[in-house]
């Protein structure tokens, strides 16, 4: 019983030891991320080719991945048994979030596998470190998926500080992977913008298959490596999977880090058995599906409309025609308008619910909502600026930019208010009319739809040609990369939290305590 031994052998109080290890581990996380960012910026500013391979901090990434894999193996083999761990009252990630981890994890693993195959075929150009990093990435993805899906309620004992540092290392690794992927995606957009401005200049592809060796050119790799074509073609889609998987991992492990405590101080209600594994059949059987059909049906209509818009975008998108951008902005404005109506209805109706007697800590969800919402504000303010100061656009009127940005800001604001209210509400009894649940079901599908559109359409250069012309292609790519990643995550996180509210806010409080998630 490492936690008890620690508290008995050292003269300091256990609370002080916990505070010290949690503080140091959080600072360690910030330090590693800072070092990665500085190394990447320094390499990028001194790079002549401006490709991702030259800007990647491969050695630091090797350390992060290797240490993460070692800790995850240690966690799964050793830390998952009492007295080194116990079950938390609530899952660190909801059932929907765990399903997302599985889907995005599989997509991330597929991309890493084909990247590894390409690295092996071009080993002389790629080098050993990046090839090893690809191998470690596959191990890391697999272990992280197993941990999130199999042990969603795992609370680790304080031990000797290892759980605090290990979990924060996992958070840092996921955030570094997220930053790395955003940079890769940004370089891709930079090169596309350069190609539009300098048609006669040779622009290097932002693949991670390049390095400073002059013999390792894109042409050489394309001729000899058919896997390169697969990586290049799948990158625009699978980048989204990598980003979401990394953010899910960072969120779950941060929640787990918050619940590290000595085994002796664990809640007496916690099971002495192995930490509980999710039971899908039990979750489905205990889920109340009532009072949701109308909201879900209307939401499916919104999903269908936006999927058609996506089909139009990928079917007719071109660099010279903005009709697809016009359709996207009209569709988005209509979607957000319905979202505003549904949110207002829900805010009014949920006033009939009662407050929870035992308040839960929702600070992490509130922080993520506020952070994502603020970046959504910034992005939409850029869009509104285009509409205000541009008057010579015929295909996409300036008024449409203003309306699109305004309704998005209003919808985001009202939705954050609604979610924060719902997180602290429950029904009086199971016989209640479940006020606001239809609107909540609708908003779940609406946010999922907007996440889908933002992920696969909005961040592409063809989806904002007017903004690109107004700010300049290079400047607009920079503005998008600074705002869109977290704005997109806002929609995914809102979907997850709204599903949690749809389930738990419409149960009586005693059932919530006993529910298996």
Helical content band: over 70%
Summed up, the helix count is 19
Shape: globular
Please provide the count of β strands: 4
Order of helices and strands: HHHHEHHHEHHHHHHEHHEHHHH
The side-by-side strand order for the widest beta sheet comes to 1-2
Give me the Rg, rounded. Answer: 24 Å
Give the mean pLDDT.
Answer: 81
Low-confidence stretches: 1-8, 200-215, 217-224
- Ends distance: 28 Å
In this structure, how is the largest beta sheet organized? 2 strands, antiparallel
β content, as a range?
under 5%
Decide which structural class fits the backbone. mainly alpha
Summarize the structure in words.
The protein is an all-alpha fold and 517 residues long. The chain has 19 helices and four strands. The strands form two sheets. Strands 1-2 form a two-stranded antiparallel ribbon. The N terminus is likely disordered.
Secondary structure: elements and pairs:
Blueprint: H1 2-9, H2 14-46, H3 52-55, H4 58-79, E1 85-87, H5 95-121, H6 123-126, H7 128-150, E2 154-156, H8 162-197, H9 218-224, H10 226-258, H11 280-286, H12 293-316, H13 323-349, E3 354-355, H14 363-389, H15 398-422, E4 425-426, H16 437-458, H17 465-471, H18 473-504, H19 509-514
Antiparallel strand pairs: 1-2, 3-4
Helix pairs in contact: 2-8, 4-7, 4-8, 5-7, 5-10, 8-10, 8-18, 12-13, 12-16, 13-15, 13-16, 14-15, 14-18, 15-18, 16-18, 17-18
């Amino acid at each position: 019983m490492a936690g008890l031994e620690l508290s008995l052998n050292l003269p300091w109080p256990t609370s002080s030891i916990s505070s010290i290890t949690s503080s140091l581990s959080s600072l360690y996380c910030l330090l590693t991320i800072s070092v990665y960012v500085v190394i990447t910026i320094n390499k990028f500013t001194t790079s002549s080719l401006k490709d991702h391979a030259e800007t990647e901090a491969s050695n630091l990434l090797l350390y992060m991945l290797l240490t993460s894999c070692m800790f995850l193996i240690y966690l799964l083999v050793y830390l998952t048994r009492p007295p080194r761990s116990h079950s938390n009252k609530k899952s660190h990630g909801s059932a929907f979030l765990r399903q997302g981890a599985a889907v995005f994890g599989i997509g991330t693993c597929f991309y890493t596998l084909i990247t590894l195959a390409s690295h092996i075929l071009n080993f002389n150009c790629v080098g050993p470190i990046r090839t090893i990093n690809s191998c470690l990435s596959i191990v890391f993805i697999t272990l992280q998926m197993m941990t999130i899906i199999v042990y969603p309620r795992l609370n680790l004992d304080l031990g000797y500080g290892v759980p605090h540092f290990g979990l924060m290392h996992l958070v840092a690794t996921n955030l570094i992977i997220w930053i790395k992927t955003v940079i890769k995606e940004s370089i891709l957009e930079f090169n596309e913008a350069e190609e539009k401005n300098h048609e006669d200049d040779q622009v290097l592809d932002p693949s991670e298959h390049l390095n400073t060796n002059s013999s390792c050119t894109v042409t050489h790799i394309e001729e000899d490596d058919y896997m390169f074509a697969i990586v290049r073609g799948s990158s625009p889609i699978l980048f989204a999977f990598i980003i979401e998987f990394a953010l899910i991992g960072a969120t779950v492990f941060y929640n787990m880090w918050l619940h590290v405590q000595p085994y002796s101080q664990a809640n007496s209600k916690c099971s002495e058995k192995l930490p509980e594994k999710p039971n899908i059949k039990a979750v489905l059987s205990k889920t109340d599906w009532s009072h949701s059909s109308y909201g879900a049906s209307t939401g499916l209509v919104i999903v269908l409309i936006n999927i058609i818009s996506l089909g139009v975008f990928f079917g007719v998108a071109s660099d010279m025609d903005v009709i697809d951008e016009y359709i996207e902005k009209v569709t988005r404005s209509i979607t957000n308008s319905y979202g505003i109506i549904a949110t207002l209805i829900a805010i009014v109706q949920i006033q009939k619910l009662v407050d929870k007697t035992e308040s839960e800590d929702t600070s992490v969800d509130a922080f993520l909502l506020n952070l994502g919402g603020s970046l959504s504000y910034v992005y939409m303010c850029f869009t509104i600026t285009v509409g205000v100061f541009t008057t010579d656009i015929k295909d996409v009127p300036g008024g449409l930019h203003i309306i699109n940005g305004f309704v998005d800001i209003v919808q985001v604001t009202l939705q954050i208010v609604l979610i924060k209210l719902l997180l602290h509400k429950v029904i009086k009894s199971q016989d209640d009319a479940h006020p606001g649940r239809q609107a909540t079901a609708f908003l779940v599908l609406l946010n999922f739809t907007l996440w889908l559109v933002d992920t696969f359409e909005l961040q592409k250069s063809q989806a904002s040609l007017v903004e690109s012309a107004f700010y300049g292609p290079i400047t607009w790519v920079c503005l998008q990369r600074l705002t869109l990643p977290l704005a997109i995550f806002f929609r995914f996180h809102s979907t997850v939290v709204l599903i949690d509210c749809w389930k738990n806010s419409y149960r009586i409080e005693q059932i919530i305590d006993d529910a298996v998630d």
